[in-house]
Design brief:
Distance between the termini: 40 Å
Number of strands: 14
Structural class: alpha+beta
Number of domains: 3
CATH superfamily of the largest domain: Reverse transcriptase/Diguanylate cyclase domain
Radius of gyration: 24 Å
CATH architecture of the largest domain: 2-Layer Sandwich
CATH class of the largest domain: Alpha Beta
Helix content: 25-40%
Strand content: 15-25%
Number of helices: 15
Length: 435
C-alpha cells in the first residue's frame, strides 16, 4: 500500500486530505481545517497537554467542566496549574495561592494527585512512542517528536499522523493536547503555544525569519525576565532587532548566549530529538503551613524529602552526581544551592547529608516557606556509590539503607523511620516530579 501524497490542507476532525481554499472541510463541514504550503514536508513536532493536571481532574469529575479549577497546595502553596477558565481571570502557574484566589475567588482548588497524573502521562507517552521511537520528553505532559521517515509505517504524512494522535488522545484518554509542527525543535515549541487549547499550528522554513521578527526576545529559549531586562537596557526588545545584528557583536556583548541569540533569531536550530533526554533531575519539595526558621525543624523535613528522591532514583535505576537544595523565603525569594559529588549516588543518606551541609549555611534565622532537594546530572545506577576509602563506614550505611528499603517495600514506608523523622514527618503540600 502506498502512502498518500502530502497535501497542503488537512481536516483535523475527519483527517481528509483536501487541497483547496474552502474555509470548511468539504467532507465533514468542520471549520478546523489546517492549511500550510509546507505541511507535507515538516516532521518535527512538539506536543503539549492542555492545562494537564486540571484537565485530568475535569475528566474525572464532569461537574467541574465549566468551572474555574486551580491545582495547588492550599492557601500557603502556589498554583501548579490552572484551567483556561481560571487563566482568563488572571490565574497563572507558580502564582502564590492567595493571589490566585484574589484573582478568581470562585475557583475550586484541588490538591495535586501526582500518581494519577503520572499514570495518564505514561499512557500518552506510550501513544507517542507508537508513532515514532524518537520521542524526547520534556516533562510529564510534553515532548518533542521526530516523525521523519514514518510515512510508510503510518501510510500518512506526519501532519495527518499528529492530527490523528490528537483526536485519539481526546477520545481514549479524555484530555486535549496542542501540537506544534515545524522543521526544528525551537519553532515546534513556539508553534504549540500559539493556539491553545486544542491547537495545531505550523511554522515553515520559508516564513520563519519574518514570523520571528515581530516576536519579543522572550520567545527565545533562555531569555527570561532578567536577561530580557538586560537586552532592553541595550535597546533590544524584538527578535527582529537581533536579526539585524552581527554575530560577533552579539558574542562580544553577551558571550555564549550571543551565539544562541544569533542563530535562534534566524530560526536556526540543529539539535536533534533525543529519546535519552527523558529526565534531567529528580526532586521533591514541600511548602509549609507556616514559615520555618529553626534548623532542627527543617532537618527532619529535608530527611523525608531525601528519602523520597532516593526511592524514585532506585525505582528508575538511575543515580545523580549533583545535589540541589531549594529554599523559598517568606517573601517568595528563591535560593538554590548545589554541590557536585565525587561519584553518582542514589542513597538517601548521601543526598541528605550533602543537602544538610548546604542547609546549615542558609539557616541564618531566615524564615522559609518551602524546602526541596533534588539530584541532577543523572546517569545509570551501575556507577553509583562505589566503596569510599576515606569514609570506611559508608558501605555499612549503604547496606543498612538497603535493608530499610526491603522492609519498607514489604510493610510500607511508615513501617521504619530514622531518628531524624520519627514522629516529625510533614505531609508535603506540593512536590515536584522528575523533569
Amino acid at each position: 500500500m502506498t502512502s498518500p501524497q502530502p497535501k497542503a490542507t488537512i481536516c483535523r476532525d475527519c483527517l481528509t486530505l483536501e487541497p483547496g481554499k474552502d474555509k470548511r472541510c468539504r467532507a465533514c463541514g468542520s471549520p478546523r481545517v489546517l492549511r500550510h504550503e509546507e505541511l507535507g514536508s515538516l516532521s518535527i513536532a512538539h506536543i503539549d497537554c492542555d492545562a494537564f493536571y486540571a484537565s485530568v481532574e475535569k475528566r474525572d469529575n464532569p461537574d467541574l467542566r465549566n468551572k474555574p479549577v486551580i491545582i495547588g497546595g492550599g492557601k500557603r502553596g502556589v498554583v501548579s496549574t490552572a484551567c483556561y477558565i481560571a487563566r482568563i481571570n488572571g490565574v497563572r502557574s507558580a502564582m502564590p495561592m492567595f493571589k490566585a484566589l484574589e484573582a478568581c475567588p470562585e475557583a475550586i482548588v484541588i490538591k495535586p494527585n501526582m500518581e494519577k497524573y503520572a499514570a495518564v502521562g505514561r499512557r500518552i507517552r506510550q501513544m507517542m512512542e507508537d508513532l515514532t521511537p524518537l520521542v524526547e520528553p520534556l516533562s510529564i505532559d510534553e515532548a518533542f517528536l521526530d516523525l521523519s521517515g514514518t510515512e510508510k509505517l503510518h501510510h500518512a504524512p506526519p501532519a495527518v499522523v499528529l492530527a490523528r494522535f490528537a483526536s485519539q488522545v481526546q477520545s481514549e484518554v479524555g484530555i486535549t493536547v496542542s501540537v506544534g509542527l515545524s522543521y526544528c525543535k525551537f519553532l515546534a515549541k513556539v508553534a504549540s503555544d500559539l493556539e491553545k487549547p486544542r491547537g495545531f499550528s505550523v511554522i515553515g522554513q520559508e516564513e520563519a525569519v519574518a514570523f520571528l521578527a515581530e516576536k519579543p526576545v522572550t520567545t527565545i529559549w533562555g531569555v527570561g525576565k532578567a536577561f530580557a531586562a538586560t537586552l532592553e537596557s541595550d535597546g533590544i526588545r524584538t527578535i527582529g532587532q537581533l536579526q539585524s545584528m552581527e554575530k560577533n557583536d552579539l558574542l562580544r556583548r553577551y558571550g555564549s548566549m550571543g551565539s544562541r541569540l544569533y542563530h535562534l533569531a534566524r530560526g536556526e536550530d540543529d539539535r536533534g530529538v533525543s529519546p535519552r533526554g527523558e529526565a534531567k533531575s529528580v526532586s521533591s519539595e514541600t511548602t509549609f503551613n507556616h514559615d520555618i526558621a529553626a534548623l532542627d525543624e527543617l532537618v527532619p523535613v529535608l530527611r523525608g524529602l531525601s528519602e523520597r528522591v532516593s526511592e524514585r532514583l532506585k525505582a528508575k535505576e538511575i543515580a545523580g552526581r549533583t545535589i540541589v537544595l531549594k529554599l523559598k523565603t517568606g517573601d517568595f525569594r528563591l535560593r538554590t544551592r548545589n554541590r557536585q559529588l565525587s561519584d553518582p549516588t542514589r542513597l538517601a543518606d548521601r543526598i541528605f547529608n550533602t543537602g544538610l551541609e548546604l542547609l546549615k549555611r542558609e539557616a541564618d534565622g531566615t524564615r522559609f516557606r518551602l524546602i526541596g532537594v533534588g539530584v541532577a546530572d543523572l546517569t545509570d545506577a551501575s556507577r553509583a556509590d562505589p566503596p569510599d576509602l576515606v569514609d570506611t563506614l559508608s558501605h555499612k550505611r549503604a547496606l543498612a539503607e538497603g535493608a530499610m528499603d526491603a522492609l519498607r517495600a514489604k510493610f510500607g514506608r511508615e513501617a521504619l523511620e530514622t531518628g531524624y523523622t520519627f514522629g516529625r514527618r510533614r505531609k508535603p503540600i506540593e512536590k515536584s516530579e522528575p523533569q
